[in-house]
Amino acid sequence: MTDEQTRPYGPPQQTYQAAGGRIVAGRYALLGELGRGGMGIVWRAQDQVIGRQVAIKELKFPNAPEDASVLSERMLREVRSGGRLNDPAVVTVYDVVTENGATYIVMELVEAPTLADLVRERGPLPAQQIAQVGERVLSALRAAHAAGIVHRDVKPANIMVAPDGRVKLTDFGIAHAADDPRLTTSGMIVGSPAFMAPERVEGRDAMPESDLWSLGTTLFFAAEGIVAFERSTTAATLHAIMTEAPYLTRVQGPLAAAILGLLVVKPEARMSYDQVRSLLAAAQGIQAQPTPPSGGTAMMQPGQPMTRLAPAPAKRNLRPLWLSLAAVAVIGALVGGIFLGRWMAAPEGNTQAQPTLTYGINGQVKLGSSGDCYNVPLKEGINLNDGVSCDKDHLLEVFAKGNLLDVASSSDDDAQAVTYPGADAVNRIAEALCSATFNSNAVPAQQRAALIWRPVVPTEAEWNRPPSDEDRNYSRGFLCLLAKTDGSQIPSQITTKVK
């Protein structure tokens, strides 16, 4: 029996009729069994005092008394953790009862499939739904982390998604408060290996950033229909987490940037709550409202250094991410809040990211040909007109490119009418997308330390220039360029081929 079958929820048809009319604590009438597994049995019950149905998790102790002690303490921790949280996306814990040598947790009954169920039944989900689920789970995690609680097992099977859009994060049974001693048993891996953050694989304690990584892996699963790092054995799975970088094939724009930003290997370089929240709001086509900083999260002010994400180990033979923004509404949402929060700084000494350049009318760079490699230095005033073969010596490469605006179903007139969102917003959109790609499989991890990169974006005048038939998307595009830090020649193409 899997852990998924012990959740405090489930469609009515999954309820099994209980034998006899058991009453717990003189109050809760057990109506039927919802599921069972290694941690115990989950019952549907009727609270005869209040008159509502609830879910009751009955702890199932192994025979070994030392295991029973550990599991009992873990269940009490679940009650303490869940009882301290107040967020619409957290399953509410109502009560804890000890009776006749058994321990019961009484909690909210939510009749909804899990995210794992949805993906198994329907395949990859629409981007807007993924973003909505992600935003609500993020809210639950933020509430938990503010209370000093780390979930430690964020995964699709622990997220319920109701038809009306409600989302619930459940199973804080292995969560722990940051100020409590951590429960461990010999040889035990607490959490699901395929969703475990790299720092936990290294043996470090779980931290809030670890939950954010797990959320990124969960959203990847919802987007692609596969578990990014799951392999045939636990050892292979843990090795993949530390050495491989997954690639996205079905989502683009702000949702892709959010997922990749959560899957940065170094926890100190992962996206903050505010950046992820704003990207997920943008992916839904809505305006994100700023969230007041908490827990020491600083606010980015105009003029601060551009976004940098720490490098993540990656394999060369994985497909590069194709980056673009998915809808007109994205621009407004991005302007409204993507960069209100602080992007975690890269490790000291990481100076790969260089200031953004502009192209077009009154721009700093002239664009001509559509090649990927050029024999000019990566600096202001260059002319990208004559491309060279990437198999020959060159000084710079294009490692990502795309449209800042992608309106597939709109007319050219509608696309052209979109107001220029401002230089700061345009710069930071391109910086985020270039940074995510630079730290993905598109650029070999072992070579990043010797490279610099710069985004190139249109000027305001270029943005507003009426496009010709030959270059209708030209004035709304961006490029990501890289070169050697020492300015030396690149003998062969470093990056995987840019589409």
From TrEMBL:
It comes from the Bacteria. The chain crosses the membrane at residues 321-340. Its EC number is 2.7.11.1. Keywords: ATP-binding, Kinase, Membrane, Nucleotide-binding, Serine/threonine-protein kinase, Transferase, Transmembrane, Transmembrane helix. Residues 287-306 are annotated as: Disordered. It comes from Amycolatopsis oliviviridis. It is an enzyme of class 2 (transferase). This is non-specific serine/threonine protein kinase. Residues 28-280 form the Protein kinase domain. The lineage of its organism: Bacteria, Bacillati, Actinomycetota, Actinomycetes, Pseudonocardiales.
